[in-house]
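Help wanted!
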Amino acid sequence: MTPIERPNCGTCGAALPGRLAQARMITCEFCGTSSVLRDKVFEIAGSGGEMLDAPSLIQLGHSVMVRSLNLMPTGHARFSYGRGWWDEFWCIDGQGEGHWLSVDEGNYALERDLHRHNWPKDFRARFGATAQIMTEIYKVTEAETASCLAVRGEFPEELELGEAHLYFDLSAKDSAMATYEKWDGGEAWSIGHWIDPWDVKAS
Amino acid sequence: MKAPQDQTHAFNCTQCGAGLDILGGGRVKTHVCPYCRSELDAQDNYKIIRQFRDMKRPETPFDLGMTGQVWGVDFTIIGTMAWAEYYGGKRWDWVDHQVYSHTHGYGWLSVENGHVSYSRKTRDVPSPTYISESVIENSEARPSVRFQNETFRYYGSGKASPTFIEGEFNFRPSMDDKLRYVDLMGGDRMLSIIDSGKEREYEVTELPDQPSLLDSFGVSKDRRPRARGVHPLDAIDRSPLQLFIRNLALAGAALAVIVGIGVAFKGDEIAESGRTGTNSEIRLPFAVTNETGLTQITISANANNSWAWFEAELTDADDEPVAAFERGVEYYTGSDWKEGSRRVSTQVKLLPGSYTVYVSMVEAKVDWPNGRLASNMEARVRQGVANPDWLWGAAAILGLIGFVFMGQRYLRSARRWSGSDWSDD
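Answered by r_m:
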């Protein structure tokens, strides 16, 4: 983590949190306004949405042990898939590496971005499809449309509230999993593992 | 989870109009109305899928909506599913309750033989990934798998079908389901391989502390299940103090044996008569120089399937009697057995000085076929000898304590495995 300048919220003027070098999006903890880094300047992106309380083992600013990894959640995004929702936490480990920790009704997954040169080729995004990522074969076990409901904290990328995107969860052996996301003008792959909820220990 | 801002806690059954609580999260797929038994699609406006009939409500201490804790985590009972298995003219029944936690997701509380266990799906896969019926039938030893660095050994298998369905589930249950399961037991966990014919899942089962679990869910005294037998996962949970005592006792016994052996061989030989005919007397002078320890006088004779009785007298340098004793040897042998000893010892406390021991055989008898009377005898004297008998006693007592602990565990383990359908035949 490398703290750099501390900009102010464009809406209420409060100092934005000491942000991380990777942060591209910060939410003001006072008024909830989201600011996005564009051309080295934080611009107002809009409201961070309403993040209603819900029981969770993960809390912003409170470290959490995931198996043997100590993570500090710095960003919290909530996504809706229509009949329900899940949370995504942007977390930083002790080496300053970022991870996405997703929490969906006791299903925990720890993922990191998959480098573009490892993206599977000729992947046909649909339920039941398979994809080879490096040497492992993954199978799509869930395909849904999701939209971002609310954001808090800091993120390495811009998350747009209300914007719908497709996501495909893929699973492989030994709890390995991957996610493919597609939205207007972009796509991304991430890869990781399912985590047993009993292996997540909140500080 | 239902989005907090959109959370709906209740709805009316689309078949019978009964008010139904929504207890599970957004991953619930099915809601079976407890009143009209209609199966409703929780992901499509509770459209009626079908109606279950002729279901007999099982006996269970849990009701839909009950909340409690499993190892400190809040869970709510959201569904009830009873199962039956038939084999060899016998029937087994158990009840699974789907439970839901906002933080730990979905799992099961299962009631069988009065025990309540907690199961949850695992995404880790054992090696090998499956144990087929033919493997079970043809294996000479219990099949086993490795899972999360632990070996799980075959416990039982079978095919079960539902007899009752009610409430919410994160899958779509059917009265026509036929699940093949293989249970494998590790140290304090059971791994179940569940094959529905469409997919294969793995579940881990553990046994929470029963009273605190039932207390937590508010199960009244009159509804508490009466446990029958020992649950396979009910291992003896020794306190660290008990384990320390067991290990200390076993280590003490081993130490006593080692020290006892050392003590038994302690001392120096100071006199030896050599072989002498039993028809004459042994006269063996010796000098004790060691102020500590005992003096040991050993008499041996070549009796075979017979016994011999000896008298011994010990005198000092002035030929005054110091001690006298009688000892016998008896030795019997067959083609694959032997009994008794051709040697006998006595220990006395002597001050440094000169002594003489006189040994003579006073009686002998052959009392076994092919026996032979002792024809020669020998006396040996050692000084500085210690008596290890108290060490043998200590070893026996400490060993007994340790083995009682171990025996308890063995008996418990045998009872835990007693419900297994595995036969070494």
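OP: Thanks! One thing I noticed: Helices of chain B lie at 133-138, 210-216, 240-264, 389-417.
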